[in-house]
Amino acid sequence: MTRAVNRRTTARQAQLFDQLVTLFLDEGFAHLTLDDIAARLRCSKSTLYALAENKDRLVHAVTVHFFRGATERVEADLARSRSSEARIRTYLEAVGRQLEPASARFMEDIAGTAAAREVYERNTRLAADRVRTLIDEGVAAGELREVHAAFVADVVAAIMVRIQQRQVARATGLADAQAYRELAALLNHGLTA
């Protein structure tokens, strides 16, 4: 874990993480050096080293920061949905919305960088587990047709992994955000009682 994750983040550090997320989402990160990043954020390299001990750890910390914030926003959207069908649709569409600001370069850099890819993969597994829980709840409430929730969740997880690994983008031309919206529509039509 990076030092930024291990200890309490100051307000200034949180602001820098937010700025880093914006920079990385817009432009990617693989091509940027720490000197480039410091110049873009108008801070010193020592300020960046206070966030993480090297660029790889900084990329990891920023990716964690991005997904942590995205998860909080997705769960907030989900909390406003009531029916099982709406909850699944809301969840997957909210995941898609969180990925909308991500440039293709950012997504390619995530896929090509082990530290960032690991964070995305972990979040994809957690999201697939969340979908399984939502399906189980909907079937138990009689709001969704009887399905084998583990199988459906496994299919969803497989698609989510393909989205995360950029395979869906290459095969269909869909951006990750749009792929999640299409997955939401497909799943909702297939699960409706």
TrEMBL record:
It holds the Pfam family TetR_N. This is TetR/AcrR family transcriptional regulator. Keywords: DNA-binding, Transcription, Transcription regulation. It comes from the Bacteria. Residues 10-70 form the HTH tetR-type domain. PROSITE patterns: HTH_TETR_2. The keyword Zinc does not apply. Residues 33-52 bind DNA.
